[in-house]
TrEMBL record:
GO terms for molecular function: voltage-gated chloride channel activity. One of its GO terms (cellular component) is Golgi apparatus. Keywords: CBS domain, Chloride, Ion transport, Membrane, Transmembrane, Transmembrane helix, Transport. Pfam families: CBS (PF00571), Voltage_CLC (PF00654). PROSITE patterns: CBS (PS51371). Belongs to the chloride channel (TC 2.A.49) family. It comes from Calocera viscosa (strain TUFC12733). This is Chloride channel protein.
Length: 766
């Protein structure tokens, strides 16, 4: 309603002429032009500020992450604040291939392994403890929740300042601990927090939910842009994944915010190499058509990986919710310790995942021979190491993603796909070296390297990312911006199309969408539809309504006893619908009235006029009453409401000491007829974003429907008891987890019983 009044005043101000009737200059016109320019400049300033802060935050997180990751292995004698790359930056510090300034903690392998494990456990403990103590919303990825927020769901504090601070502080600790989680998903959450915090400092944004959604969408695009060094990819991610309704204005703001954030990150240059992310590469070789067969194999792996990890991770989440909800810190420490214990002995699990991607993506001729990765004599041991890294990383991702620490799944999936793809590339290269004259390799030139294993790693990373997130165009754009290789767009498209097809055959959804369902958030998917069902089957028929005229004490009693967020307003002697008012508006008006005076419980409150003529108009109400796209419709224009455009900002007290609630009542709420098909109602929820849709028959209200009612009905027709229990089905992994937990409890109880019996024997002997 505030937004409607602002637009009304803006429309009135446009009518100011350039000159007054007497021919003098109109200062009202000048003031309006200045205000209009100030509003336009304010919007650009906010988007710019959000992009700059996101870029600075991403650079600081990257720098601290690299330092903490290297701190597990040693320290720099020239300065404790330098990581290994910066410590050994100058060529003069190198002697015999070793960096003199970088000192390992110990030269003993067992002690190095022990310090590595202790550091991982310490980092994970600090991160989990901070999240548990100060900001529980800082745990997880955040993409699922931001999707729900953009669709209209309110999660108070999820984008607050404490969530931002704790998530930005703990994210480097989590990555440095070695947990198989990434920082790209949390980067989107951090960016959303930045956009929300900065925008809410301005009244025009704080009072407009539509503007806030635009800023959060733009910030999400900037978060992906700085995570991958891909501004266009960030915009595509917002279009494909985050928002249902994406206007041209929102796309422009998203692109501008992503561009500012990327430029800021490039200016800070966190890696001192000119790269925005550590695994940026450039390819100058072409590919051959016979390689399409191997590209298809990589695509099949990506689809199977996405379906497999999504299914079993949700079962682990169900087990975690059932048994481990009270031990978030202990769980994070145990997972980090196990990851460090087993990962230390594999060359690709021991190092940071971003560094691993940079190594696997490189061409052998471009300095990519990491620990004999490109040597022919070591190719089969390297294949064994890569397949072990792939299997172990998949297991670590399944059990780690969803723990109560900041955790993303983008880079872990890319690391899994890169190890598998590099393994395929090495095998193909070995086949070419063994049979160079085969007709299969006839397109290869004899004196030019034919197979580039690094490109297979790149395609594998794209396949795994597309398989777990169910993205296609976004991944192609991100990978193109990472490599700058236009020639590899066709292989990327082939791989991702195969990945998508395999995922569809397996019936897999993106893990972000599955997390929304698992947590029971009221969110409708774009493709979700229910046919041949009228809305009367789903609507809620037991309603708590308010009369057009009520006493203040009765309104307060309804607020105290009814667990609803809004009330339909009806005539006192009938069910004729007169409007809709929310709980927040009622509490606001009552609180303002009590501050202005001390109204008694018997004070009359008018929510609508008691007029029989209006009832006749409602009897001819159309099937659907249109509303603005943001789902919040202000009152219709009447003489009593438009007499004072600013009346909504002040407490309205009518004669005879009556409180006037009418300016806060939505007089034309979104309504439908009972026989309207449910699929149209679902489209209204998706496209217009209302919290509630009222159902009326011939002007009289007969029910209402919310997104939760629709989701509850869809769960019932799928023969699922509840949204959360749908993942508690017994399967192999779930059974194993339950059996392991039962064995641990039985063992613990048996040990206690033996100790009690031993103590009893000792007491009897005494």
């Amino acid at each position: 309603m505030l937004e409607r009044n602002r637009r009304m005043r803006q429309k009135t101000a446009r009518r100011y002429p350039f000159r007054n009737p007497d021919g003098s200059f109109s200062w009202d016109w000048a003031k309006y032009q200045m205000r209009w320019a100030g509003r336009a400049g304010q919007d650009s300033f906010i988007v710019t500020a959000v992009g700059i802060v996101i870029g600075i935050t991403a650079a600081l997180v990257s720098i601290v992450t690299e330092w903490l990751s290297d701190l597990k292995m040693g320290f720099c004698s020239d300065g404790w604040w330098l990581n290994q790359q910066f410590c050994c930056w100058e060529i003069d510090n190198m002697e015999g291939g070793r960096c003199r300034a970088w000192q390992p903690w110990t030269h003993s392998s067992p002690l190095s392994w022990l310090l590595y494990v202790i550091s991982a456990a310490l980092f994970s403990f600090l991160a989990a403890h901070l999240v548990k103590s100060y900001a529980k919303y800082a745990a997880g990825s955040g993409i699922s929740e931001i999707k729900c927020i953009l669709s209209g769901f309110v999660i108070k504090g999820y984008l607050g300042i404490w969530t931002f601070v704790i998530k930005a502080l703990t994210l480097p600790l989590v990555i440095a601990s070695g947990l198989s989680v990434g920082k790209e998903g949390p980067s989107v959450h951090i960016a959303g927090c930045v956009g929300n915090i900065i925008a809410r400092c301005f009244v025009s944004f704080r009072r407009s939910e539509s503007k806030m959604r635009e800023i959060i969408t733009a910030a999400s695009a900037a978060g992906v842009a700085v995570a991958f060094g891909s501004p266009i990819g960030g915009v595509m991610f917002s279009i494909e994944e985050m928002s249902h309704i994406f206007t041209v204005k929102t796309m422009w703001r998203s692109f501008f915010c992503a561009l500012v954030a990327t430029v800021t990150l490039s200016f800070m240059n966190p890696y001192r190499t000119g790269k925005l992310v550590l695994f940026q590469v450039r390819y100058d070789r072409d590919w051959h058509f016979f390689e399409i067969f191997f590209f298809i194999i990589i695509g099949v792996f990506g689809g199977l990986y996405g379906a497999f990890v999504t299914r079993f991770n949700l079962q682990v989440m169900a087990f975690r919710r059932k048994h481990l909800a009270s031990y978030p810190v202990a769980e994070a420490v145990i997972l980090a310790t196990l990851t460090a214990v087993f990962g230390y002995f594999n060359r690709f699990l021991r190092i940071d995942m971003n560094e691993s991607l940079a190594i696997l993506f490189k061409e052998c001729e471009g300095g990519g021979d990491y620990e004999n990765l490109c040597q022919t004599w070591a190719q089969w041991p390297m294949v064994n190491s890569l397949i072990i890294a792939t299997i172990f990383r998949i297991g670590f991702v399944i059990v780690s993603y969803g723990s109560k620490v900041p955790a993303g799944i983008f880079v872990p999936s890319m690391a899994i796909g890169a190890t598998f793809g590099r393994m395929v590339g090495i095998i193909v290269k070995a086949m070419y070296q063994a049979y160079p004259t085969s007709g299969w390799f006839a397109a290869c030139q004899p004196d030019v390297p034919c197979i580039t294993p690094g490109t297979y790693a790149l395609l594998g990373a794209a396949a795994a990312l597309g398989g777990i997130m169910r993205l296609t165009v976004t991944v192609v754009v991100i990978m193109f911006e990472l490599t700058g290789a236009l020639t590899y767009i066709l292989p990327l498209m082939i791989v991702l199309l195969v990945t998508r097809a395999v995922g569809d055959l397996c019936g897999a959804n993106g893990i972000a969408d599955e997390m929304i369902r698992f947590n029971g958030y009221p969110f409708l998917e774009k493709e979700e539809q229910v046919y041949d069902v009228p809305v009367s089957t789903v609507m809620r028929k037991e309603l708590t309504t308010m009369n057009a005229t009520m006493r203040l004490g009765d309104i307060q009693h309804l607020l105290d006893t009814a667990a609803v967020q809004g009330f339909p307003v009806v005539n006192s002697h009938s069910k004729v619908l007169r409007g809709y008012i929310g709980r927040t508006e009622l509490q606001f008006v009552i609180g303002k009235a009590r501050r202005a005076g001390n109204p008694s419980p018997n004070t009359l409150c008018e929510l609508a006029s008691e007029e029989h003529s209006l009832e006749m108009e409602h009897a001819e109400h159309p099937m659907i009453t249109p509303t603005p796209l943001d789902g919040h419709l202000g009152p219709m224009s009447t003489e009593e409401d438009e007499a004072a455009p600013e009346a909504i900002d002040d407490l309205s007290i009518l004669p005879n000491e009556r409180l006037n609630f009418k300016p806060w009542v939505n007089k034309t709420p979104l309504t439908v007829a009972p026989q309207l098909p449910l699929e149209i109602v679902m489209q209204l929820f998706k496209r217009m974003g209302p919290r509630v849709i009222l159902v009326e028959r011939y002007g009289s209200i007969v029910g209402l429907v919310t997104i939760k009612d629709v989701l509850r009905y869809t769960a019932e027709i799928e023969h699922v008891q509840s949204l959360s229990n749908r993942y508690d089905e017994w399967s192999s992994l779930d059974s194993t987890l339950e059996e392991a937990y039962s064995w641990w409890k039985d063992t613990q109880q048996g040990t206690l019983d033996r100790l009690r019996s031993l103590w009893a024997r000792v007491v009897r002997r005494r």
